[in-house]
Every structure is written in structure tokens, then in C-alpha cells.
């Protein structure tokens, strides 16, 4: 599954607790981040933060590593003894080894570049101090279908293709409704749901949107084939009304919905 905001916030947390205050060993087995890894090597992680799908790791308060996993990137823990392959762009060693492969972005950036990137991002429901009315203003300005706006990282940061389809289903909102026609209650509902769901995603380290009432078990125990309402479930019966789940394309990505539970 393509990483969404919860993955990056979880990563930020796990890296912080793994590296602690010890110097980090860094290398680039693939060689494409040789210079950067040399600069990081021996430095201490001073700050780790996520904003939407962007991860920023600061070392000794002077170097900022910017990572975006994109569609195929992975940043995963391995044992210290594990060997690396030439697909590993960056290897960081703390209590365990972290291998970054296939990122869309892996670069050392200046504070100005950091400000530039984050200025272009909408509010991230998992960041402290973010407010729902910023999200509401962004939505109200757009005529695009709400399913397209939710993927726009300048409207809300951290939502990907799984969450957008699931949130709209849970709230009974048709994916093609123009963003500016949503009511305040619906927009507020989207924000609150995003916050609750992303938090749960960080805790479980995966996406489970089906409620306890609908699945019959607590989210942590739900099987992966029963964890979602509509995502990749085209033609299968809706978990609530049994109508066949529909599929379309919105914002260049596939989108799933139930015509009966999400009337136009
Ligand atoms: Zn339905």
C-alpha cells in the first residue's frame, strides 16, 4: 500500500526513539546519496518531524534531511547484521538499521528550502496547533470534486488514495460533489475523521477504517481483507447496504464508492 500520512508520522516517531541521543552511522550502499550520507555520518538526530507525507530529520540542528517516499519508496527497519543491496539509497544505524529504498526525494536541504516545502502544504491533522478552519477555507475555495481536493496536499496534508475513499464513504459524501458545496458540518466531519483515523493509523501502523460495529472486532484485530469499506472493493457488496461498490477515476487515481450510501 502506498504510504499515507500515518506512515510518515509513525516513522518519525520510531526513528526518534531508535536513534535517541546517540550518533548515527550513515551510508549510501547504492551510492546515489554518497555525499549526503557522509555529511550525516557521526551526527546526532536532534529533531524528527512529519508534515503530511514529508519526513524531515534534523542532525545536530544544522543538517535537514528531507525524505518523501512517493509511490514506491520504503523506509524500514532491519537487524544491524543485515546486509544491504544496491537499491538502498540510505542506511542509518541506531539500535537497528533503517534502509531507505526507492524514495521520490532524499536530500539535504537548507532551512529556506524547508520553509518553501512546508509553505506549500495544507494543514496536517496530526500536527499540533493545526486548525480545521484552515482546511475549511481551502475546501470552500475549490469547485473540484471533493475526492480530488482531498488528494491535493495543499488542501490537507497526509491524505492518500485509501483514506480519501474511506473517509467519503464513512461520512456518506459522494466523491464527485463539488468541494465548495459541502456544508460546514461535512467539512468539520472530514477534518475530525481524518484526525481520528490518522491517529489510529499511527498506532496500528496500518489503515483500518471499518468500525467495531461493522467488523465485530477491535481495529487492531481486524483481518486485512476486512479492514476497509470501499478501497479496491469494486463490484463487491457494500459492508453496510450490500449494493455493489463502484469504481471511477478522480484526480488521476482510482476512486471507489457506494452509490446508495453516498448519494449525489
Ligand atoms: Zn452502501
The small-molecule ligands in this entry are: zinc ion
Derived structural class: alpha+beta
Radius of gyration, in angstroms, nearest whole number? 20 Å
- What is the correct CATH architecture of the largest domain? Orthogonal Bundle
Major beta sheet, specifics? 4 strands, antiparallel
Helicity level, as a percent range? 25-40%
Number of strands: 10
CATH fold topology of the largest domain = Helicase, Ruva Protein, domain 3
SSE arrangement, N to C:
HEHEEEEEEEHHHHHHEE
Mean pLDDT: 96
Shape: globular
What portion of residues belong to β-strands? 15-25%
Describe the model:
By secondary structure, this protein is an alpha+beta fold. It has helices at residues 5-19, 34-40, 111-119, 132-140, 146-151, 161-170, 184-204, 212-215; strands spanning 25-27, 45-51, 54-59, 63-68, 74-78, 88-93, 97-101, 105-109, 246-250, 253-257. It has 2 domains: 5-119, MutM-like, N-terminal (N-terminal domain of MutM-like DNA repair proteins, Alpha-Beta Barrel); 132-257, Orthogonal Bundle (Helicase, Ruva Protein, domain 3). The chain is 31% helix and 20% strand. The protein has a 4-stranded antiparallel sheet. It is globular, with a radius of gyration of 20 Å. The two termini are 29 Å apart. The mean pLDDT is 96. Zinc ion binds next to loops.
Summarize the structure.
A hairpin with a 2-residue loop joins β2 and β3. The chain is built from 8 helices and 10 strands.
Strand and helix map with partners:
Blueprint: H1 5-19, E1 25-27, H2 34-40, E2 45-51, E3 54-59, E4 63-68, E5 74-78, E6 88-93, E7 97-101, E8 105-109, H3 111-119, H4 132-140, H5 146-151, H6 161-170, H7 184-204, H8 212-215, E9 246-250, E10 253-257
Antiparallel strand pairs: 1-6, 2-3, 3-4, 4-8, 5-7, 6-7, 9-10
Helix pairs in contact: 1-7, 4-7
The structure holds zinc ion (ZN).
Zinc ion (ZN) binds at residues 238, 240-241, 243, 258, 260-261.
Amino acid at each position: 500500500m502506498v504510504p499515507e500520512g500515518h506512515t510518515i508520522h509513525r516513522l518519525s516517531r520510531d526513528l526518534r526513539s531508535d536513534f535517541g541521543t546517540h550518533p548515527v552511522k550513515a551510508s549510501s550502499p547504492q551510492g546515489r546519496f554518497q555525499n549526503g550520507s557522509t555529511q550525516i555520518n557521526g551526527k546526532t538526530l536532534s529533531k524528527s518531524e512529519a508534515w503530511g507525507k514529508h519526513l524531515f530529520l534534523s542532525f545536530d540542528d544544522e543538517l535537514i534531511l528531507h525524505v518523501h517516499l512517493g509511490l514506491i519508496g520504503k523506509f524500514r527497519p532491519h537487524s544491524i547484521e543485515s546486509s544491504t543491496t544496491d537499491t538502498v539509497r540510505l542506511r542509518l544505524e541506531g539500535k537497528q538499521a533503517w534502509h531507505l529504498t526507492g524514495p521520490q526525494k532524499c536530500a539535504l536541504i537548507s532551512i529556506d528550502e524547508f520553509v518553501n516545502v512546508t509553505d506549500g502544504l495544507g494543514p496536517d491533522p496530526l500536527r499540533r496547533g493545526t486548525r480545521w478552519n484552515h482546511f475549511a477555507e481551502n475546501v470552500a475555495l475549490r469547485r473540484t470534486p471533493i475526492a480530488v481536493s482531498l488528494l491535493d496536499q495543499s488542501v490537507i496534508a497526509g491524505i492518500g488514495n485509501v483514506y480519501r475513499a474511506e473517509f467519503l464513504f464513512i461520512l456518506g459524501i459522494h466523491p464527485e460533489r463539488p468541494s465548495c458545496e459541502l456544508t460546514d458540518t461535512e467539512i468539520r466531519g472530514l477534518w475530525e475523521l481524518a484526525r481520528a483515523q490518522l491517529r489510529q493509523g499511527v498506532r496500528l501502523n496500518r489503515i483500518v477504517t471499518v468500525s467495531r460495529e461493522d467488523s465485530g472486532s477491535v481495529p487492531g484485530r481486524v483481518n486485512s481483507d476486512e479492514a476497509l469499506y470501499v478501497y479496491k472493493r469494486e463490484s463487491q457488496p457494500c459492508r453496510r447496504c450490500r449494493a455493489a461498490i463502484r469504481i471511477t477515476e478522480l484526480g488521476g487515481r482510482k476512486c471507489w464508492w457506494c452509490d446508495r450510501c453516498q448519494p449525489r
